[in-house]
Amino acid sequence: MKEWEKNIRKVEPYVPGEQPNKPDMVKLNTNENPYPPAPEVERAWKQFSPDSLKLYPDPTANVLTGALADYHKVTKEQVFVGVGSDDVLATAFLTFFNSGRPILFPDITYSFYDVWANLFQIPYRRPALKEDFHIRAEDYFTENGGIVIANPNAPTGLMESLDFLEQILEKNQDVIVIVDEAYVDFGGESALSLLPKYENLLVVRTFSKSRSLAGLRIGYAVGNEALIKAMNDVKYSYNSYTMNRTSLALGAAVLENEAYFQETVQKIIATRERTKKALSELGFTFPDSKANFIFASHKRVKAKDIFEELRKENIYVRYFEKPKIDNYLRITIGTDREMDRFLAKLKEILDRTGI
Ligand SMILES: *Cc1c(COP(=O)(O)O)cnc(C)c1O
User: Fold this and answer.
1) CA of 182 to the centre of ligand 1 (A)
2) Candidates 3.40.1190.20, 3.30.565.10, 3.30.980.10, 3.40.640.10; correct CATH number of 39-254?
3) Torsion angle in degrees (nearest 10) through CA of 168, 15, 184, 36
4) Residues 79, 267: contact at Cβ < 8 Å?
5) Where do the structural domains in the chain lie, given as residue ranges?
6) Can you tell me the distance from the alpha carbon of 41 to that of 252, in angstroms, rounded to the nearest whole number?
7) In angstroms, what is the span from residue 265 Cα to ligand 1's centroid?
8) Of 206, 290, 295, 318, best ligand 1 pocket probe by most atoms within 8 Å of the beta carbon
9) Which helix (H) or strand (E) holds 203?
10) Would you write out the chain's pLDDT as a tens digit for each of its 355 residues?
11) Is 93 exposed, middle or buried (0-12, 13-18, 19+ CB in 10 A)?
12) Which of 58, 112, 125, 156 is packed most tightly, with the most Cβ within 10 A?
């Protein structure tokens, strides 16, 4: 090993789902929204002046934090925006988890959490989910350096109630508790209502799923002003201009059309419920998802085999080769037409491998 190689930071990176680009594919592997963003985004796009790009963007991202503050009825000082919620979560880890005590998150959850913990050298423990994939509250009643809960959880899709979150918050008032609400718009209960009661709560959200803007990269956090100030101090310590001018303009525009947003979310929920029924009939079992995906396992055919067969047909779902979940497929909810094509192929594959 060369001398300089010894000093390279060794990390095991997060592996995002593949982004194939085939004309005839059905892409159900990265929980994107199958519908376009609200028409206001196209309007803002057309009004956008490339000439403005010669100037740096507003480092405070005022148009976006302001629009989000109005939307959630909080102050601008309670909102932090970043380049996707991945950026927001990473900033929160770096800002809040410095005690030397282990932070806690479930063994099965968003697989970026342990990657950031390793990168920032934050010790962590991962209490096991129950057999039914729900979180056991008591596991979070021990001394810790912070807590991260995705609710609904990924990749299970299961939601925990606000009462459940409050149990955890009550017992952990000396550390920051992050609730990652990437999927909350698809039927979860938001912890935003708990903010006035718990000054140590940080709620993180994204425009990538329910707002159909994965390609723009916008995420945000809502919390009390002291938490948001601390995150901004960290942000200004490595990159003042995280949000580019296009993201700011288009991101603020998407919040203008609440009716479109509700309609899109309702369509996805309806398709999800229909898909659950169809999957059941094909012999799949799954936790009762409140997200825009279903985490399903077949009683007879191995998930990996189904994954590979679907892939040959240009139908992409997500498969994690990890302990406890290696016989599950995470299937994003697409349009009704996409789901019909997926279900038809799935049936063919199951029939073919039938005994
Ligand atoms: C998708 C996802 C995110 C990250 O989304 P961004 O595109 O970075 O906003 C964060 N947490 C969970 C649980 C997710 O599934």
Assistant:
1) 6
2) 3.40.640.10
3) 170
4) no
5) 18-36+258-351, 39-254
6) 9
7) 17
8) 206
9) strand 201-206
10) 899 999 999 999 998 888 998 888 999 999 999 999 999 999 999 999 999 999 999 999 999 999 999 999 999 999 999 999 999 999 999 999 999 999 999 999 999 999 999 999 999 999 999 999 999 999 999 999 999 999 999 999 999 999 999 999 999 999 999 999 999 999 989 999 999 999 999 999 999 999 999 999 999 999 999 999 999 999 999 999 999 999 999 999 999 999 999 999 999 999 999 999 999 999 999 999 999 999 999 999 999 999 999 999 999 999 999 999 999 999 999 999 999 999 999 999 999 886 4
11) buried
12) 156
Full-model pTM = 0.97
CA of 355 to the centre of ligand 1 (A): 40
- Report the residue among 180, 243, 254, 332 best suited for mutation to probe ligand 1: largest number of ligand atoms under 8 A from its CB: 180
Mutation probe of ligand 1 site: the residue of 87, 89, 110, 320 with most atoms within 8 A of C-beta: 110
Does the CB atom of residue 188 touch ligand 1 within 6 A?
no
- Does the N-terminal peptide bond of residue 37 adopt cis geometry, omega within 30 degrees of 0? no
Instruction: Say which residue the tokens 């609200």 belong to.
Output: 38
The separation between CA 164 and the C-alpha centre of its own chain, rounded to angstroms, equals 20
